[in-house]
Amino acid sequence: MNDHANLHPGISAAEWSIRGELAAFYRLLDHFGMTDLIDTHISVRVPGQKDQFLINRYGLLFSEITASSLVKINIRGEIIDPRKDIGGINQAGFNIHAAVHGARHDAHCVVHTHTDAGIAVSAQEQGLLPISQHALKYYRRLSYHDYEGIALDPEERPRLVRDLGDNKAMVLRNHGLLALGSSVAEAFNQIYFLERACQVQVKALAGGATLRIPSPEVCELAARQCEDEIENQLHELAWQAAKRLIDTQQADYAC
Q: What is the number of H-type helices and E-type strands within the chain?
């Protein structure tokens, strides 16, 4: 504990651990090509703190994120990090995260992306179609929020929360994707499979063939089976496996 306190003054051991997990999440989105230069964000609640969160420093690529570069903020997006030289955050970007964190006690980790496939599906009138096993994970469990411009206005927050409802994933129309989890592992699971579902849909539609859709009964069964996987913590196995993909970066992102 003393060694930790000397190395990371003002940061508890529990906070340092979650910083490493969040930094790994950023690196994994970079690994899977789910980035948009310096835009989009992942935020996580500081352990033991209801209204404190960690988020990326604005201006860094996801490939540059480290545990120590993450910025501690409050629910209003104000920097409360004890380090004076930590840098700033994208205040507009956190508007979306603050809405979700503030309304959902289970939103330990929130992730928002702008990917080609995610934006493409967000612009399609029918939204995500139940045409793949990946998509069926979200059958009747996916929310939609209409585009209101760049999310600068705090008055949009209640509408975001209303549209999200009790779901853990949402399509932001003409914008991108959003997912949350009660852990970093679950949030990663949600955004990874939602992104894959969107990729499949874009390719299936591009093929031009008639699409085959399972019956509503089968769709609902598959969705419940996916919920059982979350309940049984299988997303933790996937998270540990995913982190092994970036093992060679660990000495960098975990610092």
A: 10, 7
SS3 category, 218:
helix
CA distance 253 to 195: 24
pLDDT, tens only, 30-84:
999 999 999 999 999 999 998 999 999 999 999 999 999 999 999 988 899 877 7
Entry pTM: 0.94
- Does residue 131 sit in helix, strand or coil? coil
Give bridge partners of residue 113 from the DSSP assignment.
177
199: CB partners within 8 A, 6+ apart = 117
Number of Cβ within 10 Å of residue 247's Cβ equals 8
Distance CA(181)–CA(106), nearest Å, equals 7
Nearest to 67 by CA among 12, 121, 130, 104: 12
Mean pLDDT of 234-245: 95
Who contacts 211 (Cβ-Cβ below 8 Å, separation ≥6)?
A: 129, 131, 204, 205
Which DSSP state fits 183?
A: S
Contact residues for 252 (Cβ-Cβ < 8 A; gap 6+): 66
